[in-house]
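User: Hi! I'm working on a homework problem where we have to compare a predicted structure to a textbook description. Could you give me the structure for the chain below?
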Amino acid sequence: MAQIALYRQYRPKTFDEILGQKYVVETLKNSISSGSFSHAYIFCGPRGTGKTSAARIFAKTINCKNSKSGNPDNTCPNCLTIAENKS
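Assistant: Happy to help. Predicted structure tokens:
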């Protein structure tokens, strides 16, 4: 059995699971709900603040076919492919 690093095992899967980044999550959810995306986003900050997790959830939500209230549904083919690290 392959070992999975703890940060990958417990990585949040929706915006609602991200803690301590209320304003970032709110801003990203608003851009998703309005349907206006920029061509690039810069996620910056010190280690362990959730940059990669927020970026992965943001990308998953943009590509999700059945996005619910700014969160990915995690059941469509796009979400499953991203969750399995095949995308």
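For your comparison, note the following. Helices lie at 6-9, 22-34, 51-63, 77-83. The chain has one domain: 6-32+50-83. Good luck with the assignment!
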